């Protein structure tokens, strides 16, 4: 008996395969996962005031997860904090030079993985894939 295909299972399966591929091809030990995504976002927006709340929204994570992520990134030397210039109650997240250098390396790895993932897929198919993913996200947002 064939099991029915479900969207959630297929997305999880693909995510695990991507993670496994990254582990196998990750010779330099670069960070990945949430820290990698957060670093990319923070580095590309480093000229703006970014707060933990922004990471929560951008990465679709909850406050405790974001707090742990920020703490790890500070411990690993990727971030420092400073009081906001707009609201002294908030702590601004500031990337370090180490974060910028690491992000450059991560982006090289991501580009290589994207090339592998896109093999044999047309631009139209990619456009449809991204449109479908966007609709799935809209359908499930709470």
Write up what this structure looks like.
There is one protein chain. Helix content is 63%, strand content 7%. By secondary structure, it is mostly helical. A two-stranded antiparallel ribbon has the order 1-2. Helix 2 packs across helix 5. It starts with 6 loop residues before the first helix and ends with a helix.
Provide a concise account of the structure shown.
The chain has 142 residues and is mainly α. The chain is built from six helices and two strands.
Features:
2 strands, mainly alpha, 142 residues, globular, 63% helix
Which percent bin holds the helix content? 55-70%
Number of helices: 6
Low-pLDDT runs: none
How many E-type strands?
2
With strands numbered from the N-terminus, the spatial order across the biggest sheet is 1-2
Overall geometry comes to globular
Q: Spell out the helices and strands N to C.
A: HHHHEEHH
Radius of gyration over all CA atoms, rounded? 18 Å
Largest sheet, if any?
Answer: 2 strands, antiparallel
Binned strand content: 5-15%
Question: In terms of structural class, how would the helical and strand content be classed?
Answer: mainly alpha
Would you tell me the overall average pLDDT?
Answer: 88
Distance between the termini: 35 Å
């Amino acid at each position: 008996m064939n099991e029915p295909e479900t969207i959630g299972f297929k997305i999880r399966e693909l995510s695990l395969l991507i993670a496994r591929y990254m582990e196998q091809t990750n010779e330099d030990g670069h960070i990945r996962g949430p820290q990698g995504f957060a670093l990319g976002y923070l580095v590309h927006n480093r000229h703006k005031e970014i707060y933990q709340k922004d990471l929560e929204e951008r990465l679709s994570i909850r406050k405790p997860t974001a707090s742990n992520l920020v703490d790890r990134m500070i411990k690993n030397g990727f971030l420092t904090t400073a009081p906001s210039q707009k609201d002294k109650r908030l702590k601004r997240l500031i990337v370090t030079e180490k974060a910028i250098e690491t992000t450059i390396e991560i982006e090289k790895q991501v580009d290589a993985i994207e090339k592998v993932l896109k093999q044999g897929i047309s631009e139209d198919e990619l456009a449809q894939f991204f449109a479908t993913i966007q609709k799935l996200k809209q359908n499930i947002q709470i």
